[in-house]
Amino acid sequence: MADDPALWHRLQFAFSITYHYLFPQLTMGLAWFLVYWKWRALRTGDARCATAARFWARIFGLNFAVGVVTGIPMEFQFGTNWANFSKYSGGVIGQTLAMEGMFAFLLESAFVGALVWGEKRLGPRRHFLAALAVALGSWLSGYFILVTNAFMQHPVGHVVSADGTLAIGDLGAYLLNPWALVQFAHNQAAAVVTGAFAVTAIGAFYALRDAYRDQARLYLNHGTVVGLAAAVLVAFPTGDAQAKIVAHYQEPALAAMEGRFETGPMAEITLIGQPNVKERRLDNPIKIPGMLSFLAYGTFHSDVRGLDAFPPDTWPPNIELMYYAFHVMAGLGTIFIALMGLANIQRFRGRLATSRPLLWVLMLAFPFPFIANTAGWMTTELGRQPWLIYGLFRTQDGFSHVVSSGDVLFTLIGLLGLYFVLGLLYLYLVGREIVHGPEPGMTGAAHG
Amino acid sequence: MVELWFGFLCLTLTLFAVLDGWNIGAGALHLIVGRSASERREIVAALGPLWSWHEVWLVAFGGTFLLAFPAVMATAFAGCYLALWFVLWSLILRGISLEVGGHSDDPLWQTWWDFVFAVSSVLLAVLFGAALGNVIRGVPLDETGTFSMSLFTHFGVRGRVGILDWYTLSVAVFTTVLLAAHGAAYLRLKTTGQVRDRSERLARRLWSLVFVLFLLVSAETWIVRPAFYAVMLQRPAAWLAIAVTLAGAWALFTGLRGTAESRAFVGSCAVIVGLMAGAAAGVFPVMLHSTLAPEHSITAYTGAAPVHGLAMALIWWPVALVLAITYFIVIMRNYRGKVGPAGDAQGLY
Q1: Which of A273, B124, B249, B271 is the most exposed place for a label (fewest CB within 10 A)?
Q2: Stretch 279-338 of chain B: residues touching chain A, C-beta under 8 Å
Q3: Gap between the Cα atoms of B52 and B176, Å rounded
Q4: Does A103 touch chain B (CB under 8 A)?
Q5: For the residues of A190-253, what is the DSSP string, one character each?
Q6: Residue B226: φ, ψ to 5°
């Protein structure tokens, strides 16, 4: 890996996109909570919902701001760090990156200030519309970015020009890439899980401290209902569909995800175990026979091809990391369903706000959707390797050859420092908002 | 088709220069115009709820650049690697300072973020100015069709140039003063009391300085790239740009002498639009001019994406532009008028 000339470029992009995506997933997850609360407050005059929207809008605003400032470098890195990739595919991916800026980002950034600070000035109806515009903008933004990524996973809608570069052939096919549709459903459901866990965690925090009782109950109720629905949707049908599409288009990636080295029927799912790539086996495996065959192809006796069926130069280069990324994601996803299921049972029994051990778990669970989302994206992106555009263009060919490793390391170190400070600042400010707490009435936002 | 997309690209960049230009300019003057903490809060409030929307025009520019001229975008951004990252870092710092500065009343907290806001704004103005200087002077493109430019080399304008030399530094100084003057005209329009009066005095002085520096930079441009004016004067678009600049200058002059705050501000916007359009008309069709040999230059025609893709994007791009401007009008209708001295944040917005 150290002799990989693209190493620093890859690390910088991986770090900056991973860090960046911690924020948009919460933005996209919280956005519809805000819309719903604003709508309830508007329709029924429910003051609890108005207070909830006001409180969460402040956290949303901070989160959005960090998302914006860490997002802008992403687009420019296509040029600075991945110039050869941009020259090769800009005629295709430029379409959606420009759409993201022109349609989505301009929409959300126009209304986010009004959403966070404009309640008094806009009045309830227009303030609700601002929340709706921000939610639509952020999801639209996600869609255009996922279409761009889907093209790298499963290129469709392009033609090869005379000079060897790619150009758009069929814009409709490109925008409605089946990979993008499945990935969008899966990813957005997972973003809602992040949002729901955050709402639930703060509800649990207030309930444990016996503060803001009404608000705590509201967050717990809404958070756990949405959390359960979204956690189930992440697994089925969206996660299932995602696995099938990987099985169809990126067979070596599926084999690597499962740590499956040999082809055969009754392919098992491994719950835990350590891949030993040199010996081509899983050490200490605990597995369910036939499950992988069933999940990928619908019958237990289907053959699932292992890595042995593919030439080694098409294997994802980092099988171990990919295996763990996938298992962390799938394992956490299962735990989320169980935890939210339990919380909903307690909610039905009217004991959600009083069962303290469960509240502790719900409060401390909020980081795990971030980890699961990150692990899911690592699975996707590592599975694409060694290709930058699957089957068309290798990662080795994509980086900016004119930029020296010294320059890239310089900016990577700078970004690490800057983002570390940014993270501290974000945690401090969000912490302050949580301690400050939701307060009824508009004058609550004395600071800010 | 290529001409049209060159125009759209310049439009996004011009919108960014005008809209975010007043934030950058106000930021550069932040510590001078705002003397007390409450005056500085008033300045930030005057920038309004849309500063991130203004910044997003840079994202729209980047996306449109990749869409229409992928080879130019990739060559230019990779070639100016470090300078571009300094821009990105400055944007991060500027955004954060604006966003979190008001989150605490603590005087140390506010002093620090006001300082970060001012420094990052000056850096942005200098870097964007240097970028403009590089576009006009040219970059060391060689026979491989690529270049990699250091931040500085021999500070001369021929051969193996760096990002900074005597010419690009002059353009950077000119741009910084220009954006500061633009920011002052904006603050004069949006604030009251001491902040307004200081902005007015600064606007008058800075715009006089802009005029002097403009003559100087124009003369330097004639030395650095003589063809610039020859090309420019053949183009009707350039004459239009000159007319817009002159009309803007007239509105500024009369607006600043009297009390017509809006007129002066509109003039300020028009001057920037005119200058950007004039610069675009002077360089077109060359997008990356080679300082080593003219035949290595990359033009809009050689760097554009295939026509079919450009034609398809023509269906949706103008729609998005109209929508974006609609949002802007909707929001600005709710934020008309001056902001008062700092009270609670909800009242300011």
Answers
A1: A273
A2: 305-306, 308-309, 312-313, 316-317, 320-321, 323-324, 327-328, 330-331, 334-335
A3: 20
A4: yes
A5: HHHHHHHHHHHHHHHHHHHHT-SHHHHHHHHHHHHHHHHHHHHHIIIIIIHHHHHHHHHH-HHH
A6: -55, -35
CA distance A234 to chain B (A): 31
Cβ–Cβ of B82/A119 closer than 8 Å? no
Helix, strand, or coil (residue B287): strand
CA-closest candidate to residue A191, choices A151, A131, A143: A143
Q: Are A255 and A283 in contact (CB under 8 A)?
A: no
A90 contact residues in B (CB cutoff 8 A)? 66-67, 70-71, 73-74, 305
**A105 touches B: beta carbon within 8 Å:** yes
Number of domains forming the structure of chain B: 1
Q: Which two three-digit tokens encode residue A95?
A: 């379409």
Structural tokens at position A6: 């693209």
pLDDT of residue A443: 42
Q: Which residues of A touch B96 (CB under 8 A)?
A: 65-66, 69, 422, 425
Which amino acid is located at A13 in the chain?
F
Residue B45 belongs to a domain with what CATH number? 1.20.1630.10
pLDDT bin (cut points 50, 70, 90) of residue B340 is: low
Residue ranges per domain, chain A?
14-245+318-437
pLDDT for B346 equals 38
